[in-house]
Amino acid sequence: MRVLLNFYILLLLSINAISAQSELKFGERLILGNSLTYIPFNEDGLRNTYHELTWNKNIALNLTKSLYLGLSYQNIFTKGSSYIISEKKENYSLVGIFLQYDLIPKKKDRILLELSWNYGNYCTCGFRDPYKEEWIDYIGVGGSYEMRLNKFISAEVGLYFYDILEPIEAKYVFTQYVLGLNIDLISK
């Protein structure tokens, strides 16, 4: 719980510091994001196959020229297993709040660094396939490149890492590349 408190304090201090350094452009962009990640696993010589599809939906509002605050909801769909022959399907979810910093705010394209706090039931724990475990907190870090296709639509490519905050034995980082399409609902 102390980690979460420190994260929120860091978030508030960051917003305050960056707002003081630049002209406030609050609310000039509202971006609706949509991205997919597909990860297949097929061991050579074995019939064992594991598929993972993540659908991330998010919305972000700019606080300044460079700083964005947003909410995300990720559905994670899995099928099969990497260690036994199975056709079992599972569904998981992650809900999060994120802070993005645009490294090139004067350009139409964006290069983003992201810090997030997430809550969900996707446990990347143990030495086998991920499994469902309620009440898990994650800290996320990553970055992406967003290329403007026209005034309202942009394509995004990124890489993100989600680390479980709880002291769970044999946990590992949930890594996710993203291919996405974003729509500017408000754009100046």
Layout of helices and strands:
Elements: H1 2-21, E1 30-42, E2 49-62, E3 67-80, E4 89-102, E5 110-123, E6 131-148, E7 153-164, E8 174-186
Antiparallel strand pairs: 1-2, 1-8, 2-3, 3-4, 4-5, 5-6, 6-7, 7-8
Question: Care to describe what's here?
Answer:
- The chain contains one helix and eight strands, in the order αββββββββ.
- Helices cover 11% and strands 60% of the residues.
- An eight-stranded antiparallel beta barrel has the order 1-2-3-4-5-6-7-8.
- The radius of gyration is 18 Å and the shape is elongated.
- It has one helix at 2-21, and strands spanning 30-42, 49-62, 67-80, 89-102, 110-123, 131-148, 153-164, 174-186.
- A hairpin with a 6-residue loop joins strand 1 and strand 2 (49-62).
- With 188 residues, it is mainly beta.
- The mean pLDDT is 87.
